[in-house]
Amino acid sequence: MNYYKNFIKPILFQLDAEKSHNLAIFILKNNLLKYPKIKNYNSLKTTICDLNFDNPLMMAAGFDKNAEIISSLLKFGFGAVECGTVTPKTQEGNPKPRIFRLKDDKAIINRLGFNNIGIDNFLKNIQKQNITQPFGINIGKNKDQKDAIADYLKLLDLTYGLSSYITINISSPNTKDLRNIQQKSELDLFLQKIMAKKSELITKTSKNIPIILKIAPDLNDQELQDIAESVLNNKVDAVIISNSTITRNNLISKNQKEIGGLTGKPLFDISNKILSKFYQLTEGEIPLIAAGGIFSAEDSYEKIKRGASLVQIYSAFIYEGFSLVEKIKKDLDILLKKDGLNSISKAIGILS
């Protein structure tokens, strides 16, 4: 019996989506759930950017915005957890309601707008936890900050060395003009400053913390090529493909016209195309982390075969429940054996 689907999900889905999310955070923060038995598979162990992962499944940013439940989420079997997006100052985000379920599409639309408690309280939450596996901090700019790079550099100063990696989020559709940083006219200088700051922090701390760039799925071929060139030229450590989409193709749920970023099943094919193109453009020289519509081992495996070293889930965790991670791991191991592979790393990019 699926305890989540039969008992917990019906209760959560009776509530407004944001209230439901807040309740889930409370439950996990207070360890009010029975955690699954974790099984590790040698075939799923992988290493990128000198970080060792027990498996390639990660919790995407956005679920644990304020770094309250990193250690709790890791108990579900994730190879890593990414928390945030965090900004320098506390901010409320956009007006409510701002999260919408598209049940028939197995999707979610949000226009949260980087609502978070600010970096000082965020870091205090991390310090309260005993975290023994890789985790990332996803950083963004405050809504009222006109000098975007100033916020990112400040956050790098404050977070560097306190997590396994740092993700630079310039691809949320819910902060005005944020995605403009992805344009060629802005991106190269932006990344030069980011990576120069990293070099400075390496000298200061003697730690080489990977810097990961998170990009949007709503990019044309030229934009994608420009980003690939800039990422390689500036020696960014890895790229997450992708954030939520603003496209609305073939949706059937009543909330389909809500403004915001769409995640879940409808993002799968969109992000796959971007993933394959980016892997080809970078010729496998940079690790890629895939996100978007992953609900099963088959979905995960396709992302990996298209060029991803790791995969992130979020919406599926909400729709399918807490046991999903262990199921995907078990089935991924089976898929690898069927293909005669003894390591997930050997599947990376074989479709591209």
CATH classification class:
Alpha Beta
* CATH topological fold name: TIM Barrel
Cα gyration radius (Å) = 19 Å
Instruction: Give the count of helical stretches.
Output: 11
Number of domains: 1
Question: Mean of residue pLDDT?
Answer: 96
What letter string, H or E per element, gives the SSE order?
HHEEEHEEEHEHEHEHEEHEHEHH
Largest sheet: 8 strands, parallel, barrel
How far do the termini sit from each other? 39 Å
Strand content: 15-25%
Query: What portion of residues is helical?
Result: 25-40%
Poorly predicted segments: none
CATH superfamily: Aldolase class I
Number of E-state strands: 13
Instruction: Assign an overall shape.
Output: globular
Derived structural class: alpha/beta
3D structure, described in words:
This protein has 352 residues and is α/β, with parallel strands linked by helices. The chain has one domain: TIM Barrel (Alpha-Beta Barrel). It has helices at 3-12, 17-29, 70-74, 119-127, 148-159, 184-205, 221-233, 267-282, 297-305, 315-320, 324-338; strands at 46-48, 51-53, 57-59, 80-86, 99-102, 107-110, 135-139, 165-169, 211-215, 238-241, 261-264, 288-291, 308-313. The strands form three sheets. Strands 3-4-7-8-9-10-12-13 form an eight-stranded parallel β-barrel. Helix 6 packs parallel to helix 7 and helix 7 (221-233) packs across helix 8 (267-282). The longest helix has 22 residues, at 184-205. The protein starts with a helix and ends in a 14-residue tail after the last helix.
